[in-house]
Specification:
With 151 residues, this protein is an all-alpha fold. The protein has six helices and no strands. It has one domain: Homeodomain-like (Arc Repressor Mutant, subunit A, Orthogonal Bundle). Helix content is 50%, strand content 0%.
Length: 151
């Protein structure tokens, strides 16, 4: 009689998703991105890690980060190819327009220098701090002089 520890998962969905970095899985993810699939679609596949795992790999593996970034640029090209195929399809003009707008928006975000309305240059990026902390001087009573609160 088999013990409960020897139980076989009822379905593939019951199998644990991979969590440790695996170069073959990482390559498959990058290939699927390059073909135009979203990370959401890829990570829904049972043999793939969850999105949080993949995003963690980006933080901890510089080589994967570089490959993932290149795959995202190629993904923009795939989305433009999909837009061109859509323009030749038999779907209604309204649906073509809506789908093309989404694809164009995504391609512009993934590869702004190639498909964006305004190319991003290094000079256009902020060089200072992302935010500035503003403090107010308080009067002797501890309330802010600018608050208009009498102490």
């Amino acid at each position: 009689m088999p013990s409960p520890d020897d139980a076989v998962p009822a379905t593939v969905a019951d199998l644990p998703r991979p969590t440790g970095y695996n170069d073959a899985v990482a390559e498959a993810i990058c290939m699927q991105l390059s073909l135009g699939h979203s990370l959401h679609e890829i990570c829904r596949e049972e043999a793939m890690p969850g999105r949080a795992t993949v995003l963690g790999w980006l933080d901890h593996n510089p080589l994967f980060h570089k490959r993932y970034t290149a795959a995202r640029l190629r993904q923009a090209h795939a989305l433009v190819d999909e837009m061109l195929a859509l323009s030749r399809s038999d779907v209604s003009p309204a649906e073509k327009s809506a789908r093309a707008a989404i694809l164009k928006w995504a391609a512009a975000r993934l590869h702004p220098n190639r498909y964006g309305d305004r190319p991003v240059t290094v000079d256009a990026l902020p060089t200072g701090p992302v935010f500035t902390v503003v403090t107010r001087a308080s009067n002797d009573s501890g309330s802010s002089a600018e608050d208009g609160i009498d102490g």
